[in-house]
Amino acid sequence: MARKPVQLDAHGYRKFGIRDSIAYAAGDFGCNMSFALKSTMAIFWTQFMQLDLYYAALLVVVQVWDAINDPLIGSIVDADRHQYRRNKFLQYIWVGSIGLIVGGACCFLPFPNAPVWAKMLIFIAGYVIWDAFYTVANVPYGSLLSLISNEPADRASLSAWRSIGSLVGNMVPMVILPFIIYDENQNLIGNRVFLAALLMGFLGFLCFQFMIKNTVIRVDTEITLKEDAPKFNVLRAMGNFMKNRPAVGATLAAVGMFIGMQGATTAVTVLFQSYFKNVQMSGLVSMFAMIPIIVFTPFARKMVTRFGKKEMARVGALISLVACTAMLVLPITPDGTGLIIYIACQFVNSMGMGIYTLVSWAMMGDAIDYNEWKTGEREEGTVYALHSFFRKLAQGVGPAVALVIMVALGYVGANEGNQTAEVALNMRYLVAALYFVSAAMQFVGLGLVYNLDKKTTIQIQEELDARHAALQK
């Protein structure tokens, strides 16, 4: 039977379709196979490795590496003019995916009886190795969205499917791992975390290879390269980012989101360990709360076409803010009734975040276009790298600050799942407060700072298309 011929667009590329979206989703699934265990890192290093406040301090220290790492990799990608057999973004992703096979496992080397100084060295070295390879893969991956297609509906589809890839990549370990890495007494089994990290790194590598093989670059970013073109300037690119209002707004919202998703993670684990007395249930609750993202995904493309990305994201942020306020004030008791109220609040919060996350990456793609529209320089790598840096800062500093607050509220890592009733109650309110701050930051970033509504986005794309057409003549 003859194979159906591939349909081409006006420029000779394979027409955009579901294959592109699934491939892009596989990339974020690959990222999250490595990244998902980061939510277990605080419990591993405080309860299994017994570092407590040392871990909080170290987590802030390694963010200095993040500060250097993300913009550095982004600027290297932007300045790289080599001609690769693959697109240069795909080439960097390929290299990063190899390192992630073992990079994640380096963060969970199980030596609980080692001296404190050795544990600190293991943590810093492991984190630096993992973060370097993660950045090499993730920064170019994020930049790809604006290169696969410049059509708003296509970008919305890619963003929505990326959210699905992220969702599934988080959901699989979130649901399965608690049953594997915790014993019947709610205590963490450190050796199993290390083995799980190795397996997830290999699965991530396979997903990246699938994405690379099935990705088509349709947006030509090399057309402005001239013999007399100015050399890439990192400081100017960073300055352009700070003047890029939509990039700043989208980044503020993402930072807020990760304060809730990552900053509250350790406190949520302790909440289920010591307040609800069922840590295995935490993964199932998180999975249930993510249902709205799955529900909204098939409609993302049509919703963006009709309402616009900013308009959708702003509504989602408002829904989350209402839900997190309710989580803070409603009587969430340590019984079945309280658990149902907690689940209901998380479900509504996830509904709001679901609306936002489905368009969040497309919003960054538009912010990259905005940078080119304003400055004449596209700078995908640097814009996305700085966005990624602030996200990762929230992912690191958020849990560190949360852990310091937890210790101040009486949390003792050595007690594992046996915190006092007072500490357990403190975790109930700390979790709600962190989610409230998260939702408030999302609303400010999306509702007050981000300024690319549907009409403006269309105008920018039309003007950029006209510029590109003129340069090709």
In terms of quaternary structure, the protein is single chain
**What is the helix tally?**
18
- Give the full name of the CATH homologous superfamily: MFS general substrate transporter like domains
Helical residues, percent:
over 70%
Question: What name does the CATH topology carry?
Answer: Growth Hormone, Chain: A
Count the strands? 0
CATH arch. level architecture? Up-down Bundle
Q: How much strand? A: under 5%
Task: Evaluate the radius of gyration.
Answer: 22 Å
Mean pLDDT: 80
Poorly predicted tracts of residues: 223-230
In short:
By secondary structure, the protein is mostly helical. 76% of the residues lie in helices and 0% in strands.
Describe the structure.
The relative contact order is 0.16. By secondary structure, the chain is an all-alpha fold. It has helices at residues 18-35, 38-48, 53-79, 88-103, 116-148, 152-181, 190-213, 234-243, 245-263, 265-275, 280-289, 291-296, 300-307, 309-329, 336-375, 380-408, 421-449, 454-472. The chain is globular, with a radius of gyration of 22 Å. It is built from 18 helices and no strands. The chain has one domain: Growth Hormone, Chain: A (Up-down Bundle). α6 runs antiparallel to α11.
